[in-house]
Fold this sequence. Notes:
alpha+beta, eight-stranded antiparallel sheet
Amino acid sequence: MVKTAEPQTARALQPLLHDVVICVAAPAFAVSPRDGQLRGLRADGFYGHDRRLLHTVCLLIDGREPEPIGVQPLGPDEVRFTAIHRYPGGGTDDPTVIVERVRTAGAGETVLLRNVGTVTRRLHVELALATDLADIAVVKRGDSGTSAPCTTTSDAVGLDWQTPTGRAEVRVVDKETIAPEIAVAPEGGTLTWPRITLRPGESRQIRLTVEGGAVPAPPGHPDAPRSAAPWAEPVVEGDRRLVELVRQGLGDLRALRLADPERTAPDGPEDQFVAAGCPWYLTLFGRDSIWSARMLLPLGTDLARGTLWALARRQGTVDDETREEAPGRILHELRQADSEHGHGLRVPSRYYGSVDATPLFVTLLVEAWHWGLPDAEVDALLPYAERAMEWVVKTSDGDEDGFLRYYSRAGGLHHQSWKDSEDAVRDAAGRRIEPPLALCEVQGYAYQAASGLAELLSARGRHEQAERLHAWAQSLRKRFADAFWLPSPDGPAPRYVAIAVGRDLTRISGPASNMGQLLSTGILDPAGSRDVAAWLASGELNSGWGLRSRSSKLPGFNPMSYHGGSVWTHDTAIAIQGLCATGCHEEAYLLADGLLDAATRFGYRMPELYGGDDRTPGSPAPLAYPAACRPQGWSAASGVALLGALLGLRPDVPSRTLRISPMPPEQFGPLRAEGVRLAGHTLTISADRSGGVDVTGLPGGWSYVVE
């Protein structure tokens, strides 16, 4: 007898994104099916500030939808949809009218009608528009809002929608085309041009603007930047895949930028940061924004400075259980309003529920210091880093085992590191493991933050505080070595690092990618780094397209699970950075080559995550994870992270030395990067086929050492 699943209560499902076209100019974006017609389905629509402004923009010509023939991205913020309009009785199957729709995030849409035939055409053109003005959290959980009431604009050239929480306006701004006839109904409005005449070779354009957002707009909320991107534009020569990944990634990062309206000085520079990802996370996320800034440090410290200040201004000051705020704690997520994500998760507009953003904040400041962040900025941000470190130490020392651990609270995130889905932590038997948990990589973050801040304090002459932090870090390192290693009788190495320890130091068994993020933190000794490297390169974790989040040999492995077997772009890049930093170049090459091959299959716009199936001769490309953000901040920044890792760049401010340990040339060949930024100076770094390294443009008093 065939056993069937028990019937379950129907619930909404998150919209899939793998086959949609996204253009973004933060805080605005547009999500479209490949034919360009917005029909009010799934996540389709124009958005601004976490609000869906339109979900329906449906074009009809002579009562028929145009036939789609192509879609072409024109940049991160713009896409062109091309369709044709044919005439059954026209004596030819060739297109006679071409329809080009250019959709621009944060602006609107242009419809260009071109007569490429030999006879005059008279067109009846109609645009149906509607919206629910839904919050992005409503869209993400798969619910649809009720239709917002529609009216004409005061000047009768467009349509207007407004609810107590949102508003949207569509206006016709093109002067070449006659004004449309406007009709409104409870479910939306229609713009109609009943008599557009096109002679052979002629064209007409209809241009719409789309504006709107939340009502009321929260004061002090980040908005679109007004100045250029705060990083250098490098010229990279070498592996074509890496060149394209860096180019595409930087374009996407420019589109994902937001700016804090507050500044350290009225005439000072904007404090820009990179939003986490589109469409679900187009806002300030502590962890994600920090990682993006860390990865881009080889191109300058300005993004790091802006990210640090945006988070410092919102650093926790009080104990608030609802927000999970605490003095010194760094923000996890910033939204325009409280949001209901379904399944009991309710996120306040300013939410602090992450265990990792706080130590990562400290490390970003330390690394920016090493890359040449001006002393005045370092000193101004240092008190915020010290308060953040106080939260890390206090939280760890308050735990019974002395680790940085998170606890689940009703209504908040269940798991609070980067693997934050409900089933993010499983043991080797596939069983879900519940908090409280001390994740392995979080202990590495804490160790790296304490060690780095101790070095910075020592350089400022504060030796007593530095020594206390150094001693605390070394104690954590020893406790980690005693508590986290597990034997593996049949694995690629004799032992591996447990993903976490639970109550009473119970090790959570089962190899996972988390241990790859330990390599660059310094918490592992050389032997431990070699053991971890062997695991990362093994077929259990290396899919051939990148690093799996969970071993493929374990029960519960699912190549399409959010954190239980999929490949995350940034996770793979961080592991490659660590492998290169610890001299494990062969293992780094295996992962980097697979990640770069995956990039070619995704058109170099790397998604948040993708499928973790084995790469085989019959698998021409990795499967897309259907609900992944794309573009995603730390995925887009991963190309620059790879560039820095393959060159092996490690600046050291106290000794004024740039240490370089490039990947052996027989693996990736020669590599050249013009536009690396160190202490405000532009460098050109070359690694040739013979293993030689050349650096030009170093700041005065600096030297470089090839290791």
